[in-house]
Amino acid sequence: MILNSRLINFKEVNDDLNVPRVGGKCLLPDNVEWAVNPSGEKMILLLSLPTNFLNEHFQFNYPSDNVVSVFSTYNKEDYFLELISYQGGTNGLKNIKDGFTKVILHPIGTPRNESDFLVPAMEVIVGDEFDVPELFCGNMLGGTPSFLQNEITELNSYKFCMQLYGGDLPEKFEDVFCLSDAVGYLFLRGNEKDPGLFFVQFT
Question: 6 phi and psi, to 5 degrees?
Fold first, then answer.
């Protein structure tokens, strides 16, 4: 179980492997529909995380040999940051809970992609433990999220799992969070019916 923050590094990997990775093809079974946002747009796959990996590091109780897939709204032409970000206030997570990002738990299926975009696959490599500097906002797993703005009481029943810095994502997809200096945060519950939430913040 990870109690402290650990740095995350990345390495290129085949886009269909069942390893913890950013991007690549989704292992969504054929009988599960591709994630679509409330505007009817097919979303992009951001993360593919085997449940065995999550159970090992966080002592979750997800079904073994499943996958948690994280999807997000993405558009090369239109501004979409407000749809995927937490902006504070009572309804700060409204767009997230409405479905402009989605966290889906599912069995392993045949690799596929139905989005107009495919982020090059990068395996998540868990590094050493470290003390989070006050202004650190890079890539990490577990511990305490870095630079998370405002206390979000709606997340009290979730566990912080991972954060990603947009500028470190694959070339041509540094804008996957709309702004390259935005940070994506993944919170999970280990719950089959409500696996988790993903949202972005920026300064």
Answer: -125, 140
d(CA 87, CA 101): 15
In the block, tokens 């902006």 appear at 87
CB–CB of 132/142 below 8 Å?
no
Find the mean pLDDT for residues 95-120. Answer: 96
Q: Each residue of 1-35: pLDDT tens digit?
A: 566 899 999 999 999 999 999 999 999 999 999 99
**For the chain, first and last CA: distance in Å?**
31
Tell me the H-state helices in 59-99: 81-84, 94-95
Q: What pTM was computed for the model?
A: 0.94
For residue 166, what pLDDT is reported?
94
The residue assigned the tokens 């402290």 is 4
- pLDDT, residue 3, reads 62
Q: Which residues contact 140 (CB under 8 A, 6 or more apart)?
A: 5, 6, 7, 8, 130, 132, 146, 162, 163
What are residue 50's DSSP bridge partners?
67
**Which candidate, 143, 138, 97, 119, places its Cα nearest to that of 46?**
119
